Amino acid sequence: MAAASESSGTVFSARGVTKVYHMGEVDVHALRGVDLDLYAGEFVVLLGPSGSGKSTLLNILGGLDVPTGGTVYYRGDRLTEFDDAALTRYRRQHVGFVFQFYNLIPSLTARENVALVTDIAANPMNPTEALGMVDLVPRQNHFPSQLSGGEQQRVAIARAVAKNPAVLLCDEPTGALDVHTGILVLEAIARINQELGTTTAVITHNAVIADMADRVISISDGTIVHVHHNSSKRAASELTW
Fold first, then answer.
1. Can you give the pTM of this predicted structure?
2. Which candidate in 86, 160, 187, 196 could, as Cys together with 96 as Cys, close a disulfide (CB 3.0–4.6 Å)?
3. 103: helix, coil or strand?
């Protein structure tokens, strides 16, 4: 699949986005007037240190949080005007989430964990098909306690993509993993982006992962400080850190 560009269509458009958390008498400015566009089918890395505002921005795009100010559009729909019920429908129908910790249900098998999502999705994959995207069909009847950390994270990715989301948002998906296992997880995310055309955003503090991206958006102190287009991308298997 060719690298996405502005001509592929705008999926997200954010303008002047701010987020202020009130902590007692102190105001914490997590985002300070962010302008951002994400395009259909592209793979974006949001790069920055802890506390830079990456997760806050991702949560706003995914409808898990709302900004203090500014506007966010998803394919022309103004997310910042959605009520709680509309945000719930948006998350359910359009967005897959992958977090640093896997959040699998211990009493359910890998396949059953994935099936939980397909039961509420409008146009889901078969759970076994989703596990096939992350090379885990042979392990589909195993419980989380029988899976390695990397396998559990790949189940979490399968769960996220099983509802056929247009967008996959990943928050430090390799943060709890060693290098070898992290690369397997990144390979699964890249495969989904390439084969399904899912707009994919990965936030990380690991600069090496940026080499996989179509675009790298660097964030510091709640602002976007640099945007870099990779002229060529590296495969996850070529990375080391």
1. 0.91
2. 160
3. coil
